[in-house]
């Protein structure tokens, strides 16, 4: 049985890190300017993935009897919120959704959730 409170707690943590990271990207871009070919984007992406992993770890630690599903769902729930917001923004500036990017980032979010789950299992042993 899925404990949605554990999933929600993990998703909230992951979402907080991802949103702060997205704001940081915008602030850095507005002040310094991140060029289209800049590698700084990857650093911010790693921070966001770290947040998704932390959310997965939190959810997994709250449900040690079923850590994998809770960690995975926490990361995917946070990603779903960000993806929906991103699609709304893209539609308002008259760009269509990018299904390849959505699928890739969903897989990365799922992987981060699983990584967080593995970290939680490793620390509880």
Please work out how many helical segments DSSP would assign: 4
Total domains: 1
Structural class: mainly alpha
Beta-sheet strand percentage? Answer: under 5%
Mean pLDDT: 93
Helical content class? over 70%
Task: Sketch the major β-sheet.
Answer: none
What does this molecule look like?
The chain has 125 residues and is mainly alpha-helical. It has one domain. It is built from four helices and no strands. It starts with a helix and ends with a helix. The model has no long low-confidence stretch (mean pLDDT 93).
Write the layout of secondary structure elements.
Elements: H1 4-31, H2 40-62, H3 67-92, H4 99-124
Features:
125 residues, mainly alpha
Task: Summarize this structure briefly.
By secondary structure, the chain is mostly helical.
């Amino acid at each position: 049985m899925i404990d949605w409170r554990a999933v929600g707690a993990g998703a909230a943590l992951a979402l907080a890190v991802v949103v702060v990271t997205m704001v940081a990207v915008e602030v850095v871009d507005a002040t310094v300017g991140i060029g289209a070919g800049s590698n700084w984007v990857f650093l911010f992406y790693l921070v966001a993935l770290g947040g998704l992993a932390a959310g997965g770890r939190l959810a997994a630690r709250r449900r040690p009897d079923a850590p994998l599903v809770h960690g995975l769902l926490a990361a995917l729930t946070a990603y779903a919120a960000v993806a929906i917001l991103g699609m709304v923004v893209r539609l308002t500036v008259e760009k269509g959704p990018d299904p390849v990017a959505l699928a890739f980032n969903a897989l990365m979010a799922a992987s981060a959730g699983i990584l967080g789950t593995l970290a939680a299992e490793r620390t509880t042993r």
